[in-house]
Design a protein that fits this description.
Blueprint: H1 3-22, H2 25-43, H3 59-65, H4 76-88, H5 106-119
Helix pairs in contact: 4-5
Protein name: CHASE2 domain-containing protein
């Protein structure tokens, strides 16, 4: 095998390993914890557009509320209360940057669904 073919094979193998890592749980965790944080740090803080309020759910908020640091595991009743409160304050649109993939406690899920329905 010539040096050129070895280089091509090595490059393809490295690319395949990189793709496999990217789509693995470890790769996604690395991207979330390092890649995304680095991009936000490089960009720096930016003000919200006029007429928009961004509510940041951070680790301080979770500890003050006595809730887990992983926001996607919060009881959906908390999200329901946020939707109701934001709507009462005049929010025209409410968006969550959280994956609501798995079912949680049925009554909390129903409360969240009802709050979304009330908000329109």
């Amino acid at each position: 095998m010539t040096g050129t073919w070895r280089g091509i094979c090595f490059g393809l193998l490295l690319a395949a390993a990189g793709i496999a890592l990217f789509f693995s749980p470890w790769g996604l965790k690395i991207e979330e914890d390092i890649g995304l944080a680095m991009l936000f740090q490089l960009r720096g803080p930016r003000p919200a557009p006029d007429g928009m309020l961004i509510v940041n759910l951070d680790h301080d908020a979770s500890s003050q509320l006595g809730l887990p640091e992983n926001f996607s595991t919060w009881p959906r009743s908390i999200h329901a209360r946020m939707v109701d409160r934001l709507k009462d304050c005049g929010a025209g649109a409410i968006t969550f940057d959280v994956h609501f993939v798995e079912e949680r406690k049925a009554e909390d899920d129903l409360a969240f669904a009802a709050a979304i329905h009330r908000a329109g």
